[in-house]
C-alpha cells in the first residue's frame, strides 16, 4: 500500500529553523516531524511512501534514504518545479499512485497526532466510495454507510447502522443507531435518536434533540429545541 506526503512547503512560520532544514525535518519529541508520520504509515501496512518535494529536497532525500533502509520500505520523490497547491502534487504523482487499484493515504507533512490509519482504511473499504475525509476524533460505529458528499466534524459519534448521504454533521453531535439522513445539516452538539429518518434539507440548530423513531421532512429547528413528534411537512420549529 502507498502513501503520498506533501512536503514541498517553505515552512515560513517556523523560520529561522527552516532556513537550515525543511519543516518536515524539524524535530518534534526528538524525532523529525515527517518520521512520526512515516512510522505510523508503516505500522498500518504502507510499504511505499511518495514525497511531493520542492524546498530543500536534497536534505529530505538524504534523510529519507536512511529511513528507507531502516524501515525496509520504498521511498520515492515527486519533484514540484513550482508550487502546485494541494491537488497539484496528486496529479504530478499520479503514475506512482495509480499503477494498481489499492487505496492510498494522502497527508500534509506537518500533522502530528495519534494517526488512526488502520481504522480509516477499514472504514474506507467498508463504505466503498472514492475517498474518505474523517476528523480523527470522530467515532464511526459498525455497519455504517456514509456518502457520497458527507462531512463529519470533530467529536461526532455515529452509532451502528447509521446511513448518511449528502449531509454535514457538525462538531460534537451524535447520530444514534440505525438512523437515516439525507440532505441534512446536524448542528453542533445535537443528538439524533435511534431509527430516525431526516431528509429534504432538514437543518438542526445547535443543541437540538430529536427523539427516537421520528420522521423529519424539511424541518428547520432552532437551537436548544427538543423534537418529540414527527415533522411530515417542511416547516420551522421555533
UniProtKB/TrEMBL annotation:
InterPro entries: GMPPB_C, Hexapep_transf_CS, Mannose-1P_guanyltransferase, MobA-like_NTP_Trfase, Nucleotide-diphossugar_trans, Trimer_LpxA-like_sf. PANTHER family: SUGAR-1-PHOSPHATE GUANYL TRANSFERASE. Belongs to the transferase hexapeptide repeat family. Pathway: Nucleotide-sugar biosynthesis; GDP-alpha-D-mannose biosynthesis; GDP-alpha-D-mannose from alpha-D-mannose 1-phosphate (GTP route): step 1/1. This is mannose-1-phosphate guanylyltransferase. It holds the Pfam family GMPPB_C. One of its GO terms (molecular function) is mannose-1-phosphate guanylyltransferase (GTP) activity. Keywords: GTP-binding, Nucleotide-binding, Nucleotidyltransferase, Transferase. The gene is GMPPB. PROSITE patterns: HEXAPEP_TRANSFERASES. Residues 3-112 form the MobA-like NTP transferase domain. Its EC number is 2.7.7.13. Residues 132-237 form the Mannose-1-phosphate guanyltransferase C-terminal domain. Gene3D superfamilies: Spore Coat Polysaccharide Biosynthesis Protein SpsA, Chain A.
Amino acid at each position: 500500500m502507498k502513501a503520498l506526503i506533501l512536503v514541498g512547503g517553505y515552512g515560513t512560520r517556523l523560520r529561522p529553523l527552516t532556513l537550515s532544514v525543511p519543516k518536515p525535518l524539524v524535530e518534534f519529541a526528538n524525532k523529525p516531524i515527517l518520521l512520526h508520520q512515516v512510522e505510523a504509515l508503516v505500522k498500518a501496512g504502507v510499504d511505499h511512501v511518495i514525497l511531493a518535494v520542492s524546498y530543500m529536497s536534497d536534505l529530505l532525500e538524504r534523510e529519507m534514504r536512511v529511513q528507507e533502509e531502516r524501515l525496509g520500505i520504498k521511498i520515492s520523490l515527486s519533484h514540484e518545479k513550482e508550487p502546485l497547491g494541494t491537488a497539484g502534487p496528486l496529479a504530478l504523482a499520479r503514475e506512482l499512485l495509480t499503477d494498481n487499484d489499492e487505496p492510498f493515504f494522502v497527508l500534509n507533512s506537518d500533522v502530528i497526532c495519534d494517526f488512526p490509519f488502520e481504522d480509516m482504511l477499514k472504514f474506507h473499504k467498508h463504505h466503498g466510495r472514492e475517498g474518505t475525509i474523517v476528523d480523527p476524533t470522530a467515532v464511526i460505529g459498525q455497519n455504517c454507510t456514509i456518502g457520497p458528499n458527507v462531512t463529519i466534524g470533530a467529536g461526532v459519534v455515529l452509532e451502528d447502522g447509521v446511513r448518511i448521504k449528502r449531509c454535514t454533521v457538525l462538531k460534537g453531535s451524535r447520530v444514534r443507531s440505525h438512523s437515516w439522513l439525507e440532505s441534512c445539516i446536524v448542528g453542533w452538539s445535537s443528538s439524533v435518536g435511534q431509527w430516525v429518518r431526516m431528509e429534504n434539507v432538514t437543518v438542526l440548530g445547535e443543541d437540538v434533540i430529536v427523539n427516537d423513531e421520528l420522521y423529519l421532512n424539511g424541518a428547520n429547528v432552532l437551537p436548544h429545541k427538543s423534537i418529540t413528534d414527527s415533522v411530515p411537512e417542511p416547516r420551522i420549529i421555533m
